[in-house]
Amino acid sequence: MTLAFAAPDAASRPLHVVVADDLSGWLAAQPAAVRGWLTDGDFKAALGDLRLLPAADGGVAAAVVGYGSAKTRARGRFGLARAATALPAGDWHFEGLPEADRDEAALGWLLAQYRFDRYRPGAEIGPIARLKLPKGCDAKRLLAMATGEYLTRDLVNTPASDMGPAELETAFLALAARHGAQATVVCGDDLLAQNFPMIHAVGRASDRAPRLLDLRWGGSGPSLTLVGKGVCFDTGGLNIKPSSGMLLMKKDMGGAATVMGLAEMIMALGLKLRLRVIVPAVENSISDRALRPRDILTSRKGLTVEVNDTDAEGRLVLADALALACEEAPDLLISMATLTGAARVAVGPDLAPYYTDDEAVSDALAKGAKAGCDPVWRLPFHTPYEHIIEPGIADLDNAPGWGFAGSVTAALFLRRFVDAPRYLHFDIYAHSPADLPARPKGAVGQGARAILSALPQMLGL
Predict the structure, then answer these.
(1) Active site residue 441
(2) Would you give the DSSP letter of residue 422?
(3) Where is 71: in which H helix or E strand?
(4) Can 315 be counted among the known catalytic residues?
């Protein structure tokens, strides 16, 4: 789908945005025909309630959409987004939209138009209603955010049959080529030769070779390194998941997809920084070569890891990638992963939990989340739990089986491989379990827009 707003000088029809508390006053100011039409139709200005207003020739002259109350708007983002897919094709503009809400409304308009139709070539997309951007909105920025989000969604929605390590590499190289970035790949047994032993150990059971993807872009400014978990499918390994646990495992590369979407945003906007993106891409499969419970691995950093659960493989591949990233000491290091079910238990599917020891980074993210309409929530790097991930027989335990704070102990495990001045880790879900405004059921980006909006403060751009 081509993402575009209406041209600034386009003739457009009005979409009246009406707050529920102001409905009586708004109706009183309308022509009798409009007032009667909406009153007879029991229009209450509920959030997202769309009504078309007829023209004298039988066409559509305008539309009205409810904006609910402050309370109902607080219960969810992108309340106006459903109008984007319910309006007739053509160009539209908002009337009566509060200035403070214009960016969210415009972004929601774009995100609501997403369709994953790769496997339905004959499916009808339906009419596209284009929005004439409200005054003051940054079209380039909004389009970059939506384009990055679309990339993330497409990658995660694609089943593992068509999105294995090789296909993820293809998408990664295409991203680099679009923006003139440099990319390298280390594949198969070359991972051992170049000292990525834990990435190799996790991926060696599959006939789809594991690999490390590495992208560099930008020649000046502060350095930012993004590391994304690219487990293209996770059976759980020899600690095999139940069938119900595998149903969403095509999304276990959601961290990789999210950092690639974020990189798309950064490069499209030409931010003045030096970007590096590292993705360990593997499939966690079962064979006679599979990683075994109680194996002990020696990581790239030299730390030894006892494998007490082969289904806790994401932190293993991330550990080698983080060690590589820290060999250059980036100004800011960010990892993103669909890492633990414990994070979902803690905050549910809509919030993106993150970890950092840097108060300035956390403060910037709080502001960035609001600006990007991308909610995040801070969880603690709780150092007193460090002993939980120390098994005694090796330096670290990848799955201590403690039964508590699973997201926290996973984050602490990753932190052991980080030597960078500032580190930020996201434990995301990358999936919307239900159709929500601007977020159809299926893949969804989390945290990327918050980070993008926070980068100027975090890196002094």
Answers:
(1) no
(2) S
(3) helix 70-74
(4) yes
Provide the residue type at 416 as one letter.
Answer: R
Phi and psi dihedrals of 448, rounded to 5? -65, -45
Could you read off the pLDDT tens digit of each residue along the chain, which spans 461 residues? 568 898 888 899 999 999 999 999 999 999 999 999 999 999 999 999 999 999 989 899 999 999 999 999 999 899 999 888 899 999 999 999 999 999 999 999 999 999 999 998 877 777 789 999 988 999 999 999 999 999 999 999 999 999 999 999 999 999 999 999 999 999 999 999 999 999 999 999 999 999 999 999 999 999 999 999 999 999 999 999 999 999 999 999 999 999 999 999 999 999 999 999 999 999 999 999 999 999 999 999 999 999 999 999 999 999 999 999 999 999 999 999 999 999 999 999 999 999 999 999 999 999 999 999 999 999 999 999 999 999 999 999 999 989 999 999 999 999 999 999 999 999 999 999 999 999 999 999 999 999 999 999 999 99
pTM: 0.96
Active-site pick, 241, 274, 344, 370: 241
- Which letter, b or e, does each residue of 110-149 get, where b requires 16 or more Cβ atoms within 10 Å of its Cβ? bbbbbebeeeeeeeeeeeebbbbbeeebeeebbbbbbbbb
Positive or negative torsion for Cα 367, 373, 376, 377: positive
41 burial (CB, 10 Å; 0-12 / 13-18 / 19+) is exposed
Catalytic residue among 276, 315, 415, 449: 315
Q: Which two tokens stand for residue 4?
A: 């575009």
Helix (H) / strand (E) element for 183: namely: strand 182-187
All domains in the chain, ordered by first residue: 13-137 (3.40.220.10), 141-459 (3.40.630.10)
446, 352 in Cβ contact below 8 A?
yes
